[in-house]
Structure formats: C-alpha cells, structure tokens
Amino acid sequence: MKDKTPEKYHITEMRVPLFEIDIGQVVYHGNYFHFYNTARDEFFREMGYPYIEFMKRGEHLAIVETNCKFKGPVSYDDIIEIHTGVSWLRTRSISLYQAIFKRDENHNLSMVNEALFNMVCISDQFRAAKIPEEFAYKVKTWMNNK
Amino acid sequence: MKDKTPEKYHITEMRVPLFEIDIGQVVYHGNYFHFYNTARDEFFREMGYPYIEFMKRGEHLAIVETNCKFKGPVSYDDIIEIHTGVSWLRTRSISLYQAIFKRDENHNLSMVNEALFNMVCISDQFRAAKIPEEFAYKVKTWMNNK
Amino acid sequence: MKDKTPEKYHITEMRVPLFEIDIGQVVYHGNYFHFYNTARDEFFREMGYPYIEFMKRGEHLAIVETNCKFKGPVSYDDIIEIHTGVSWLRTRSISLYQAIFKRDENHNLSMVNEALFNMVCISDQFRAAKIPEEFAYKVKTWMNNK
Amino acid sequence: MKDKTPEKYHITEMRVPLFEIDIGQVVYHGNYFHFYNTARDEFFREMGYPYIEFMKRGEHLAIVETNCKFKGPVSYDDIIEIHTGVSWLRTRSISLYQAIFKRDENHNLSMVNEALFNMVCISDQFRAAKIPEEFAYKVKTWMNNK
C-alpha cells in the first residue's frame, strides 16, 4: 500500500468499546470497519462537508473495494488513534488510506491495522454519480493546507 | 411474565455464531435481540405473512417496550432454540413472548433468556398505523390451530 | 419505572454513528444497548472505578434483567445525551436507570429511550460474587456528592 | 484475485437478516464479514474439523489480511449463497477465497461480493502456531475429493 500513502492525516482518537470485542478478547475483525467509518465521518465533518450532506442529496459514498491488514490485537479500553488520509480523488470516486494505532501510556504509537478504501459516489438507486463539487473543493483545500 | 405466557410456540433452531460473542466468552447482552429478530422473521414467514410485506406497505412493526431476562450464558457454537408465541394482538399493536433455550447433546432444553416485546405498527413517517388485516387474520388462524 | 428514578445523573454525550442505523433509517433496537454500555463505562471511569478493574479481578457485572422503552426514533448524526443514575446498590448487585435524550440545535432535550438494568457481580466461571468494596465505596460517594 | 481462485467450493445458503442492513437499505459493508465467518464455520464443520476444535487447543485462525470487493447491493430477505474455497495451505497459514452470490427466483446467481482471507494460526497469547495436523489433513482431503 506504500505508493498510495498520503502525506497528510486527519486524526481521530477513541477508546475501544466493549461491544467491539470478540471471543478472542480482541476487536472482531469486521468491527475495525466501525472505527474507520467513524473516523471518516469526523474527517469529513472537520473538513467542512459532513457525510450527511451526501445523504441530503440522495447520495452515498459506497465502498467498492477494501484492502485491510491486521497487524496486531486491540483490546477493550485501549486508546487508539485512527489516521485518515486521501490517496486520490477523481470525478466519481475517492480513495482513502486509513490506519489504526494503539497508544501506550507514554503516548507511543504502534500500528495495529491499516486499510485502503476505494469509494464511488452513487445515488439512492445505486447509479454512479459525480462527487459533489463542494466536497471535491473541500478535499482539495484540505490536502493543500499543510 | 407468567400471565402473558402463550400456549403455542413457533420454534427456530440455530447455532450461535462467533460474531455474537463478547469479551466474557458468551453472547453479548445486546445481541440476543438478533436471535429474537431472526426468530420473529421465521415465525411470520411460516405463518404466511413475511415481515417484508409490512415494508412493501411502507410500514414497520416498531418495538416500543421490551422486558428481557438473562438467565444463563450462551456460548459460541451452542445450539439454541428460540420459542416465539403471541401474548396478545390488538388493532394497532401486538405483544410477543419469546424465550431462548440451550440444547444439550441429549436434546434437553434449559432456558437461558426470555423476553417480552410490545410492538406497534407504524408508517415510514413514524405515525401509528393499523395492523394489516391479512397479518391479523394469519396470526389468529395460527393461534387457533392447535 | 418512576419509583426507581435516581436523583443524580452522569451525562455522556455522543453523536449517533452510521453503523448503528437499520433499514428503518433509525437506530436498530438492539443497538441502544451499545450506547448504554458506553455511557456506563464513562460513568464508572469518571466515578473512579473503570469497568476494566472488574475484569482484572476476573469478574464482570452481568446484566440479569433489562426493561427498555423505545419512545421515539434516533437518526444518524443526531447528538444524544445518555443519562445514567443508580437506582440501588446491594452486596452482590446494582441497578442502573439510564435514559437517552435527543438534543436539538437549541439544546432542548427530548427523551427517546429509557431503560433499567439490573446487574449482578459474577466471576469468570459465572458464579455470584460480591461487588468489590472499592467500587461500592465509589458509588456511594458519588451518590452522596450533590 | 483470479490466479488464486480455487477449483472447488463449499456452499452455504442463508437469508439476509434485518440487523445486517444499514441506512442505505443494503448490507453494511462491515457486516459481510459475518456472512463469510458463518460460511467458514460451516465449511470447517462439514469438512470434519469444526472451528471450535482450534479453540479447545487454545488456538485461533487470525485474519491477517483481507481484500474485499463490493460488486452490488444485497438487501434484507435476499437469499444468498456463500462460496468458500481454499487458495493455499501452508504450515502456519491458510488462504481462503470466498464469494457471495445473490439468488433470484429462477435460481440464477449474480456475484455481489468477493474476498480473500489470509489467516495465520496463533495461540491465545498471540504467538504464531502450526496449523493442527488433523485440520491440514482434512483440508487436503477435501481439496482432493472432486
């Protein structure tokens, strides 16, 4: 996933809730997608285009592909950082690179998960749609503000 | 819950999936509602009025109250039976009594959970609606066929 | 649930995540238990006895009964407050009353859900255990500090 | 994913439950992993080595990487088939290719999702472990029985 690694990240911090933990005493593999989803939401909101704006237009950003690497366990009550960056932005699609880091008491980070999400803009009837201009503008502005 | 205990039950059988298990190695308390939901769906389908018929009318059976008792742990791979019965049926609402039993190798059952669900029929706009006549008819027919 | 209504509440604020929403465009009934769980965790942590301390002792607070009333829909991106209070505390059990309020732009609150949770302290082997003394002390101190 | 496509598949059939559906009226992207998980469980059980046997040894098959493609929506009450095949088997790891098909009334299948799961055998303490010999034997036998 290296060549797509973004230069800039939005950071969401959270504590791992009990209901995300499975029989192995760690986060269930399918539940990492909750963390990534929440982080994307915070990213879009802080960038100035909350995800709900897509929905008001009758649109969604649908995930068409993900590649996800599970590098280490995450436990209940762990404090994690979710880093979200933009790999690329096109007329009808966007690719986000996201990674989850576990933070110890000394604020050292170790990566426990990383994932790439390719998303396309679709209408409520599952037809391809153009990414809203305002969203694209906000993304580009965010990427250029270093 | 005794006075509301129905005389007749629909029975759904299933194996407890791994993703329903939590950090305590047993089913997460909020996930019993998945089992009850699936059992109601099978009950309605076999009774002759699949739940999706409500949705085609732009309606839902919304739960307004539940009382749920957790009597014993349920583990991954356990075989459970979910018993579903009708406590009462009114013009706009229905109450179901449901219970979950763990089944051992000798097919002995021990109750691990029981719950009462009071539901009202609502429209997509969350307005009260009458229970569809055909549904009511099917429920009454099922209750009377012993 | 009136006679058990506590006098004092801990308040947790959160935004409703997308993954808690179901086909009816509102929070799935079984997912309210995630919000209540998270709020109890924050309450215990701020009270001075994080839930993970139970687990370090090989113990859990297991829910044995809940009564939950669904009074109105909660949507994606809504800001909610979860109020958590103590109904009673005994040697081996505790009862919490919790309620969820939707907050509008003017910071007006409307109750959308309320629930009572009776919990008992159990060991990893599902045997009844005494509530840890330190936890009981912290709960009583919190209840008396008005 | 073509070069890793297996020649033989185990097939699990199920009906999509309501609680897997999200705000877009289709299965939430993170919940496809529930279907894949359930299908792997059924595959292992029918192959003669139920997953719980790993757990009795204090071991798990931990997913270390997944590549998942979302090709079309799946709705509540849809009947799906989950096809599970073995891409490769090594001393400490296994790779499964799985795909989900939607089945229409004429029993025609259309692929809606496909995923590759690379898994390693680990102990309860998250140390690498060898795949149990009996499991490896059962997998090879299954692959060779055409």
Number of strands of chain A: 5
Overall residue-averaged pLDDT value of chain A:
95
Sketch the major β-sheet of chain A.
5 strands, antiparallel
Q: List unreliable stretches of 5+ residues of chain A.
A: none
> Kindly, what is the distance between the CA atoms of the first and last residues of chain A, rounded to a whole number of angstroms?
22 Å
**Oligomeric status:** homotetramer
Strand content of chain A: 35-45%
List the secondary-structure elements of chain A in sequence, H or E: EHHEEEEH
* Integer-rounded radius of gyration of chain A: 16 Å
Strand order of the largest sheet of chain A: 1-3-4-5-2
Structural class, from secondary structure content of chain A? alpha+beta
Task: Describe the secondary structure blueprint for this structure.
Four copies of one chain form a homotetramer.
Chain A: E1 10-15, H1 32-47, H2 52-56, E2 59-70, E3 79-89, E4 93-103, E5 109-123, H3 133-144
Antiparallel strand pairs in A: 1-3, 2-5, 3-4, 4-5
Explain what the structure shows.
The structure is a homotetramer of 146-residue chains. Chain A is of the alpha+beta class and 146 residues long. Chain A is 23% helix and 38% strand. A five-stranded antiparallel β-sheet of chain A has the order 1-3-4-5-2. Chain A is globular and about 40 Å long. At the A-D interface, helix 1 and strand 2 of A face helix 1 and strand 2 of D. Strand 2 of chain A pairs antiparallel with strand 2 of chain D.
